[in-house]
Amino acid sequence: MPLVRIELFPGRTHEQKMEIAQAVTRALEQTAGVPPSATTIMFSEVAPSDWVVAGKPLGAPKPAGG
């Protein structure tokens, strides 16, 4: 039972996420023979300020109270 965790910036619609999930599920079925009922997908939205590459955040944190 594959668990696919997709981490991305906020901003995708529910419909876009469902399209991504369907494509990933199909890919696992076609390439690895995994039945769709065995695939679980989790989306985690991460603020750009919490996504750090080479010690630097990809976005500025939101001001407090904003």
UniProtKB/TrEMBL annotation:
Nucleotide-binding listed as a keyword: no
InterPro entries, A to Z: 4-OT-like_dom (IPR004370), Tautomerase/MIF_sf (IPR014347)
Pfam family, one: Tautomerase
GO MF annotations in UniProt: isomerase activity
The keyword Cytoplasm appears for this protein: no
Keyword terms, alphabetized: Isomerase
Domain 4-oxalocrotonate tautomerase-like residues, every copy: 2-60
UniProt family annotation: Belongs to the 4-oxalocrotonate tautomerase family.
Record-given protein name: 4-oxalocrotonate tautomerase
Upper classification of the organism: Bacteria, Pseudomonadati, Pseudomonadota, Alphaproteobacteria, Rhodobacterales
